[in-house]
Specification:
3 domains, mainly beta, 3 helices, Elongation Factor Tu (Ef-tu), domain 3, conserved putative lor/sdh protein from methanococcus maripaludis s2 fold, six-stranded antiparallel beta barrel, elongated, 22 strands
């Protein structure tokens, strides 16, 4: 409202301000097209109009799903002693991050030698199964090292959303523990059957977890990203308005001229729309504060100008 009042104030202060729509017939006899709003450059800067250039690209739709991180990873190494003996001590604790070659524990062999057992790779100490003083051999796991850099998550997809689902799709995973952070993943498995009770299909996603923020068994949500087959002009949802029952956007047609352009929407999400008709390559579309142009257009068509 403050910006709208500011726009009106600028109109009153500047003779011939472009905020008002021109008369249908000007003194020179030119016809001004319906749906045009004129705004001085100074006013455009003051109200914060922002433009984007219309270019065709694939539209990304999203399917929202919920699920959880698996309770373990496939990248797990079970550590055993190279020879029978007694576990003397641990050199790393559960939850510690270790690298390849990091010493994990010490075993005293039957020959009386101290054997230091290293980690086979990067990961965290997932579990310890024995305590110092226990007998060890080459078959019994002493501890487990899990690599959490890549975790597997399971999600449920409803039947109505299945048509667009395929292997390899990009998936953006979120956790309530980190509301501002997104974890990238890839769809790697689609179940061949439908759950009889929930009527959903189980899918699995490999999720990148380089910072080890996601934990085993954690509940998560995700957006499965699906690209459209055909390219569209993709613009923000807030740039589209309803005027006289039609969906329109405002296109800059001259330095101080903006025209309401009817558009056809092929697909849309809560954030973006895919325009299939009504825009041309290179059009300058108003994507911020365009509601002010809509307000001025409606008032000018009612003959009210900037007056309330």
């Amino acid at each position: 409202m403050k910006k709208l009042l500011l726009l009106c104030l600028v109109v009153l202060m500047m003779p011939g301000c472009g905020c008002q729509k021109k008369d249908v017939h000007s003194e020179e006899g030119h016809h001004d097209e319906k749906g045009t709003v004129h705004v001085k450059k100074e006013s455009q800067e003051l109200i914060g109009l922002e433009l984007m250039t219309a270019q065709k690209k694939a539209f990304i739709s999203k399917i929202e799903v919920t699920g959880e991180i698996a309770k373990e990873t496939e990248n797990m190494s079970h550590i055993v002693s190279p020879e029978p003996g007694i576990l003397k001590s641990y050199l790393a604790n559960p939850g510690d991050t270790v690298e390849k070659g990091s010493l994990l524990c010490v075993v005293e062999s039957k020959a009386g030698n101290s054997v230091e057992i290293p980690s086979p790779g990067h990961g965290i100490i997932f579990a310890q199964y024995l305590k110092p003083g226990d007998v060890v051999d080459s078959l019994t796991s002493i501890l487990t090292v899990a690599d959490p850099d890549l975790l597997r998550a399971s999600f449920n997809v409803y039947e109505k959303d299945l048509a667009g689902i395929k292997l390899g799709l990009k998936v953006l995973v979120k956790s309530v523990a980190y509301p501002e952070k997104t974890f990238e993943g890839k769809l790697v498995y689609i179940s061949p059957s439908v759950d009889e009770k929930t009527r959903t299909i189980k899918i699995r996603v490999d999720v990148s977890n380089k910072e080890h923020l996601l934990k085993f068994g954690m509940f998560v949500t995700a957006d499965i990203l699906i690209e459209s087959k055909d390219p569209y002009y993709v613009i923000p949802q807030k740039a589209v308005h309803f005027v006289s029952g039609k969906r329109v956007v405002f296109v800059k047609t001259a330095d101080e001229e903006f025209r309401a352009r009817e558009v056809k929407i092929a697909e849309e999400t809560k954030d973006e729309v895919a325009v299939s008709d009504g825009l041309c390559e290179g059009d300058s579309v108003v994507i911020k504060e365009s509601f002010l142009l809509k307000s001025e257009l409606l008032k000018s068509e009612m003959g009210a100008g900037c007056a309330e």
